[in-house]
Amino acid sequence: MLERATNSTALKSTATSSLATRRAIFAALALLTGGGVLVLAIVAVPPRSAGAITFLTLFAVTLPWSVIGFLNATIGFLIMRFARDPVATANPTVARIRGDEPVIASTAILMCIRNESPDNVVRNLEPMLEGLQSAGLAHLFDLYVLSDTDIPEVAAAEDACFAALAAKWDAFRVTYRRRAINTGFKSGNIRDFCDRWGANYEFALTLDADSFMPAPAVLRLVRIMQAAPELGILQTLIVGLPSMSAFARLFQFGMRLGMRSYTLGGAWWQGDCGPYWGHNAILRLQPFIAHCHIPKLPSTGPLGGYVLSHDQIEAALMRRAGYEVRVIPEEGMSFEDNPTTILEFLRRDLRWCHGNMQYWYLLGLPGFRPVSRFQIVFAILMYLGSPAWMTMIATGMLAIMISGVPTGVVASDGSTGPAVLNAGIALFSIMTVMIFAPKISSVVDVLLRRSERRAFGGSPAFLANAIGELMFSFLLAPVMSFAHTVFLFRLFILRHRGTWGSQMRGIHSVSWRMALRTFWPQSLIGLTIIGLVAATTQGGVRYAVTAVGALALAVPFAVATASPSIGALLARIGVGRIPEETETPSALLALRLAAVEASARRTLKKP
Predict the structure, then answer these.
(1) Fewer CB within 10 Å, N- or C-terminus of the chain?
(2) Roughly what angle, to the nearest 10 degrees, separates helices 512-536 and 370-403?
(3) For 483-505, what is each residue's pLDDT tens digit?
């Protein structure tokens, strides 16, 4: 036994040393890459004026996000191409199980909802419950539906729906609890479970209303947690479910490409300080209850009160307590429904933006590991980069209008020499590659694998979809960045606080009036800049269109991508096709059957 303990300690020491080496390599690469790009930016925009210095400062603010994404994608691509077992290379804990070990731990399944369609929740849960019951393990899993619903009609529907669910799946001891006041938002919802029932279980599986996880994936998580007692949180890689929404199809196709290499590369150097996205993950309850309580922030100011984005802070607190937080960078384990319109996507993203800004209060908490503290800073910079990008674009357009020269890079003295022009072209090219590196690396990896090409519908269809998604991203990103900028202005200057509202998850259209009411600022700014550039420069319109054309098109973009008829057309011709549409896994077939049954139940309820 002493020899076994000694070997275990030696292996842990070796793993720690290896992870430290990885992080040192990553940090060195990040500094070299970021420094090199910043030097090139200084050549392209010589700091000889206040405007140029402002531009370079803003560029430096946006640079970390691009550099980290590029390096994660590069490392992830190398792992995908050359590692014998890419997932185990990034997360060694997955190699500790064969997959047939006995499941002995007690696990609570937590479904957190707020003003959601209960039928859709049941649709997502029943295939999992069926799989666990078929495996003869229902006695080890209890289901808790934790509701923060405050709409009376939805609450009444929940009462009836979850009572029927409890009667049908009595082997799981279904508990439905609804709070009258959603104190602490989602983290408060889970904390309430922990205080009342958490001591009865070893693990908790956290799910959102749009989450779907097949039973084999759940059992795999439990087995890994059993085999690795040092794990506190184990997060799955989440991919989008097949959708008939035009917006969701294009968005989830891009997410599917981007998350592959990015998550693998990130897991390689983050290691035991991995990400936690708040759902589709498993928690070790004892340390979570003891160490992961997020304090209420001072009530004064726009960032006060309860934290809206709880997950990254809980991960940092778990790591501070000495437990590992890891991700399984593998597709096909868990799924979610993506927002079906840009309005719903924006509503969710602005809530995350507000929550991430609250991290300013928590950044200085004592005892955080360096990587955890870096991740918190990175989460803040993710949204602060948007106003920086918007101001950079405005500065660049202003420089073009003042100089009257239609170039992408104008020196501070108004000259456009060859060195400045060439540096500007190089900078634009490098930044484009860096920003889209996660998707580019996945595209290359798919094209190099015959089975992957077939899964995405063949090389021609896949390449056409990749190009289409790239255009979609060019239209979406500026609109979102502008929205972040306006939101942050209202948050910090006007001191307007956000809320945790409900989402419309089903497919629905967006009217022209609604789109105009939401995106008129983007349209006005975009059209104004294009008009001013056209009036003050010779041939500069194409540069303005490249920079702000997406803002001018925000309203028709919102309407078109929400159109049910356009979504149905795209699905029919294979635009945005993901592998689950080429060959539907058995788990998603069960989900589809559950959806049909839920639809039948709704039909029977109608008079």
Answers:
(1) C
(2) 50
(3) 999 999 999 988 777 666 667 77
| φ and ψ at residue 44, rounded to 5 degrees | -70, -35
Q: Is the dihedral of CA 440, 351, 65, 27 positive or negative?
A: negative
82: exposed, middle or buried (C-beta count within 10 Å: 0-12, 13-18, 19+)? exposed
Q: pLDDT by residue (tens digit) across 77-124?
A: 999 999 999 999 999 999 999 999 999 999 999 999 999 999 999 999
Give the model confidence (pLDDT) of 524-562 as tens digits. Answer: 999 999 999 888 887 778 888 988 999 999 999 999 999
Instruction: Share the mean pLDDT of the chain.
Output: 90
Instruction: Classify 99-240+268-337+351-364 by CATH class.
Output: alpha beta
Q: Who's near 7: CB < 8 A, 6+ residues apart?
A: none
Distance of alpha carbon 57 from alpha carbon 59, whole angstroms: 5
- What residue type is assigned to position 395 of the chain? T
DSSP at 334:
E
* H helices, E strands: number in the chain: 23, 10
Taking the C-alpha atoms of residue 214 and residue 587, their distance in angstroms, rounded to an integer, is 6
**pTM (2 decimals)?**
0.91
Instruction: Give me the helix-helix angle, 541-552 and 512-536, nearest 10°.
Output: 170
Average pLDDT for 186-196 = 96
Instruction: Classify 278 in phi/psi space as left (phi over 0), alpha (psi -120 to 50) or beta.
Output: left
Q: What is the pLDDT of residue 2?
A: 40
Strand-pair partners of 110? 144, 206
Distance CA 554, CA 517 (A): 11
Pairing state between β 141-147 and 175-178 = parallel
d(CA 20, CA 468) in angstroms, rounded, equals: 40
